[in-house]
Design goal:
There is one protein chain. Helix 1 packs across helix 2. The two termini are 12 Å apart. By secondary structure, the chain is of the alpha+beta class. It is built from two helices and three strands. The relative contact order is 0.16.
């Protein structure tokens, strides 16, 4: 098992902001927004490649936008890995 990062107070603030955004944008209740945010929290670490083969990287390297992720040249991206999942790990 590979630990990508241990959550800290910055992550908690980021999670709170994402929940607030979802509640305002989609009118979701707290538990639904919390579930969606937590289940997708590792999405920024997904590796992606441009359909034209011009660019590759991770989703955290992209400019946030609505709709499907696009490479810097405007082409759609294909995910090549799965997102890591949140877990409790015994040390």
């Amino acid at each position: 098992m590979k630990v990508i990062r241990v959550l800290n107070t910055s992550d908690i603030e980021n999670i709170k902001q994402k929940i607030d955004y979802r509640q305002a944008a989609f009118g979701e209740d707290f538990l639904l927004s919390l579930g969606v945010v937590l289940m997708n929290y590792g999405d920024k670490y997904v590796k992606v490649v441009c359909v034209a083969g011009e660019w590759s990287g991770t989703k955290k390297n992209l400019v946030p936008r609505d709709g499907i992720p696009l490479c810097p040249n405007g082409h759609p991206l294909i995910e090549t890995t799965q997102a890591p999942r949140l877990a409790l790990i015994e040390e």
